[in-house]
Design goal:
By secondary structure, the protein is mainly alpha-helical. The strands form 3 sheets. A 3-stranded antiparallel sheet has the order 1-4-5. It is extended.
């Protein structure tokens, strides 16, 4: 329901909030991240460290004194971070010694080696951090749309069971998260069930003349419950209608994006064909497509098969990729080796993503002839 927003848009939305709201959201996000960091240090039963690309002092060899203190994701195609080994990174973790305050910056691989745990455990940490960022996006969306959902708290007969974290949202004028709304709904349902059970006991315990009064109270409660159920059903109906309308809009948006993509692909093919000289090689075409904005090796394979006359067959494997996919991959990896391209860390067995290398000036061993291969 809530689309992810960029870091710049998140800052812009935070900037229009009150200082109290902004401080609360930023504190909760930092607290959530700290909890994730502490959990991985505790739950993975880390008992030993392995020095990676940095020399530790004798006082820094105790694993309990180290803590993951920060994390940065610089986004697809961006290598703004740097590992202790000198390698540029998209995902960068900072670990800090709690006594000496020595800080080390590592990528996923070297962090897993330092903590002596599997890389997939680090991927799990990244997933948990993404959930925290998603909840911040959710609150910013609700604040911008003036949807706070305090009515779920106000309708509770007994508010003493509500956690302080939920009350804090009201105090700081911050919307409820969906998971907090679900918790309030469970409180409400349980309290209604408790009230009904108490009334049933009263029916059996009170004297005959009091039973009529108890029955009246039960009827009032049931009426109130029915009123609430009708209200909830009306809300669900409104939500279904809104979801149907949203789905229609989403389908229209997807069709519009597909049409834009088809037009963009056609324009890209025309540009590349205009740039390439007669007799351009397979490698020239693949490289030129990346230079002109196509980053997916699978998409490049389809374009070269359908629009440049190469083998149009697809493999019979699960991923149904073009036969020429491996040739495209080899051609682009050769450009990576030459320093002209970088392969994004999000690349996997299904597809590989390539970007123009923004740090080509660091590759001092490149010849002037290779540097002039870029097509405009």
């Amino acid at each position: 329901m809530y689309e992810r927003i960029s870091a710049d848009e998140s800052k812009q939305r935070l900037s229009v909030l009150t200082k109290e709201q902004r401080d609360f959201l930023e504190y909760e996000m930092k607290r959530g991240r700290r909890t994730v960091f502490e959990n991985v240090m505790r739950d993975e039963k880390i008992t030993a460290l392995k020095s990676v690309d940095i020399k530790l002092l004798e006082d820094e060899m105790n694993v309990v004194d180290w803590l993951i203190s920060d994390y940065d994701d610089f986004g697809p195609g961006n290598l703004g971070g740097r590992c202790a080994c000198g390698r540029r990174l998209r995902y960068m973790f900072t670990i800090e010694h709690q006594i000496t305050h020595n800080k080390i910056q590592y990528g996923k691989d070297h962090l897993s080696a330092f903590l002596n745990i599997e890389v997939n455990e680090i991927d799990g940490v990244i997933n948990e951090l993404d959930k925290i960022d998603y909840e911040l996006d959710e609150l910013l969306w609700k604040t911008e749309n003036n949807e706070y959902y305090y009515e779920y708290y106000e309708r509770l007969p007994d508010k003493t069971v509500v956690s302080e974290s939920i009350k804090k949202h009201i105090e700081m004028n911050v919307p409820f998260l969906d998971r907090q709304i679900n918790r309030l709904n469970k409180h409400f349902e349980k309290q209604i069930e408790t009230l009904e059970e108490e009334q049933r006991k009263i029916q059996h315990e009170v004297e005959l003349e009091k039973r009529q009064e108890a029955r009246r109270q039960i009827e009032e409660l049931l009426k109130e419950k029915k009123k609430i159920e009708d209200m909830l059903e009306a809300e669900k109906k409104a939500q279904r209608e809104a979801e149907y309308k949203r789905q229609q809009q989403e389908n229209e948006r997807i069709e519009r994006l597909l049409q834009e993509k088809r037009e963009k692909d056609a324009k890209l093919i025309d540009i590349v064909k205009a740039q390439l000289s007669y007799g351009a090689t397979f490698n020239d075409i693949a490289y030129s497509l990346v230079l002109n904005g196509q980053h997916s090796a699978v998409a490049i394979s389809h374009i070269m098969a359908n629009d440049f006359g190469f083998d149009k067959r697809n493999s019979r494997g699960l991923m149904k990729r073009p036969y020429i996919y491996m040739d495209v991959l080899l051609a682009l990896k050769k450009q990576v080796d030459n320093g002209n391209l970088i392969m994004d860390e999000s690349s996997n067995i299904e597809d590989c993503i390539f970007y123009v290398n923004p740090y080509q000036e660091e590759n001092s061993d490149k010849t002037e002839e290779v540097k002039q291969q870029t097509l405009f």
